[in-house]
Amino acid sequence: GACAWILPCPMQQVRPDEQVLPTDQLGTQLDPPAHWNELGATISDLPPTVSLRPLVVIDISQKVAVQPSYHAQVADVLDWESAHGRVPAGSVVMIRSDWSKGWDEYKGDGGPVIPGVGLDCLRFLHLNRSILLHGHEPLDTDSTPTLEGEAWLLHNSYMQAEGVANLHQVPASGCLLSIGFAKLLGGSGGYARYVAICPPASTGNGVSIIEAPAAPLALQSAPLVRGSDGVLRPTSGAPLTQHLSDLEVARATHTDET
To answer: What protein family is recorded (predicted)?
Structure first.
């Protein structure tokens, strides 16, 4: 699922100092039907009701450890239900494979064998459990020659999440999922952020609002400088702009008048 159906995949040269990657399908992403379906909904067509849903995490990581190409089956869903109850209608079902833990290694070897989600499993989740969408850690739904699972989903007007990580830190049930994405007009997909909202006692991972109120946000350790890769990073020794120098003086001399 790395390339949008309406766009070519290779990098296109715009000018000597600028390149545009003609795809909105990179990294952790949300695929609407238009990713493969010319009659399908685009990412700007998605209603706000997708933003917060019950979360189900089905763990197939032990099976993947034995068989790296393992694809989730209906039996895996039924095993989850035997422990946690019926998969809620309208929920998001994330398939934990732990594939994402090896991302740095995969970048070096050019493409590993991937685990996936079997077509029968996808059909069961949507047609028998009426879920909103499923998600998986690799960048494709399955490893069949025709990507049959992804094809079935998108041509039947279902969405999916790809490139998901950190599912090993999330409980199997009891959480909500916040789904954030850029509403690109007519987009066939795009970057997304999936945040699990869990009861405090359910996991030792994550952070609370008390621990990270986010207002104000912390300052960087040094001025930000954009590197050759386009990423802004704190850079020791970089000079402050006059605006920031004035701001630091203002903060140092500020008194609370309330």
So the answer is: Belongs to the Cyclase 1 superfamily.
